[in-house]
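Teaching assistant's notes for section 4

Start the section by putting this record on the projector. Ask students to predict, before seeing the second block, whether Pantothenate synthetase will look compact or extended. Collect guesses on the board.
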Amino acid sequence: MTQLASTREELAKLLAPARRDGAVVGFVPTMGALHEGHASLMRVARERVGGGPVVVSIFVNPLQFGAGEDLDRYPRTLEADLEVCEREGVDVVFAPSVDEVYPGGVSTGSTSEDVTVAPGPLAEVLEGKTRPGHFGGVLTVVAKLFGLVRPDVAVFGEKDYQQLALIRRMSSDLCLGVDVVGAPTQREPDGLALSSRNRYLTPDQRAEATTLSQALYAAQREAEHGVEAALQAARAELRRGKDVDLDYLVVTDPALGDLPANPEPGTDARILVAARVGTTRLIDNMSLTIGAPR
Ligand code: PAF
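Reveal the predicted structure now:
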């Protein structure tokens, strides 16, 4: 049975037996509004920890939302989320208040007296360009949650690929000792990546939103002819979406660095896209193999 903790003390109490027994602790941080994508992360965590506890946090983190973003309207569905956790055999849900996570208040900017995590240059590109401060907010809350849960393994979706890369870097660069595992993106039958933000889409926008994944699939098919061919195929698909306002479409190496100018046949790469469909910003990404059939 899933147990619910809303304070640091309750969490510590629920995890005390596992700590005493030296059990492997698995962790899936979320902002709630749980869907099949989150459920798949819980299953990956369960596989990793065996009989050890799987902990899920549900916390809409104000620090990672910029002015004018969807903090207020972000869906909060705790009852339904607990049902998902129960179904997936999660042991502990940690659903703290904002005060519990930020007892000193949520302050941003250079005048803050709080210690926060500086995410480095990888946070300035792609999502970071349009969402200044976003990844600092993500890494700060994940570091706090790692400190509270003290997991051995933490599972994040590949859907937020830049976030996953940055959390990996944080765990390794700050020697946090957490094994950060990426889990594949879950998709609707028509290819749309599952996301809590999909619920903002009108039926027409929902239909147009598939353009993103269709563009990435087209790039995968053309990647054997090189990076430019892959990008062209993706752009052609994206142009079909009338209400799709492209932010970026890029091909990088798997760690989000630059690819060599003339990649060897069979080089692994990543293609990432972000676009606004109506007023909703969506992101997606897929792996590519450059210069060789997949
Ligand atoms: O991916 C998310 O849901 C959030 O960014 C995370 C990792 C839970 C931090 O708030």
